Amino acid sequence: MLHARLREIRKSKGLTLQDVADRVKPDGTTAQTIGRLETGVRTLTIDWIDKIAGALDVEPADLFAFPHAGDILIDGAVTASGSVLDQEEGLLPLRPTMKNPVAVRFLENMGQYHSGDVVVCEQLTQETLHRAAGCDCLVKDETGRRHFGKLFPTREADTIMLAPITASGSIKASLKVDMVAPAIALMRSLSH
C-alpha cells in the first residue's frame, strides 16, 4: 500500500514525522498530518503526493515503487463494446503489492472511465471469486476472449453474467470464464 511505502522511505532516510512535516513546501505541515497520511487515515491526493515526494527528496513515482515487484504490462485495450483487444499498450510504473496484476487501457470514454485511462485489475483464484460480485472486472472467457464489464454471479456455479459499461455493449449471460480480475486501481493522466 502507498501509505506503507511513505513510512518505508521516511524511515530509510532516518527522518522523523516532524522532519518530513518541516520539509513540506511551501508552508510545512504538522507531524500529525504526516502520520495520518502514512497510516491512510488521511487521503493522499495528487497535491499531497507531490508535497511528500518533495519533502522526502524522491520522485512522485518512487512513492509507488515496491522493490520486490516489477512494472505492470498494459496488455490490452478496452473498446466501446467492452471487448478487450490483445495489444501491448506500454508499461505502468506502478508496482502494487497484489500477486497477479493485469492492466488494460481504455480507448474511448466509457461511463466513469476516460479515453487513455489505465485500469489495474487483480486476478482472483477460484476461492476468492466471490469478491468480484458487482465489481467492474476484466474477464477471460473459455474461448480466450477478454471482456470488461460489471460482473454478476448466476445460479450456475461455473458461469457469470457480465453487464456492459456503456449502452453500445451487450450483456453476456451464462458466460463461462477462465480468469476474473476486478478493477483495483484507476490511473488517469492529467493531460487527458
> Helical element count?
4
Helix/strand/pairing category: alpha+beta
User: What would CATH call the architecture of the largest domain?
Assistant: Ribbon
The CATH topology of the largest domain comes to Umud Fragment, subunit A
Assign an overall shape.
Answer: elongated
Biggest sheet layout: 9 strands, mixed
- According to DSSP, the number of beta strands is 9
Radius of gyration: 19 Å
Beta-strand content estimate: 25-35%
> Which series of helices and strands comes N to C?
HHHHEEEEEEEEE
The CATH homologous superfamily of the largest domain is named: Umud Fragment, subunit A
* End-to-end distance: 26 Å
Protein architecture, described:
The structure is a single chain. This protein is α+β, with helices and mostly antiparallel strands and 192 residues long. It folds into 2 domains: 2-64, Orthogonal Bundle (434 Repressor (Amino-terminal Domain)), CATH 1.10.260; 72-187, Umud Fragment, subunit A (Ribbon). Helices cover 20% and strands 30% of the residues. Strands 1, 2, 3, 4, 5, 6, 7, 8 and 9 form a 9-stranded mixed sheet that branches. A hairpin with a 4-residue loop joins strand 6 and strand 7. Helix 2 (17-23) packs across helix 3 (31-39) and helix 2 (17-23) packs across helix 4 (46-56).
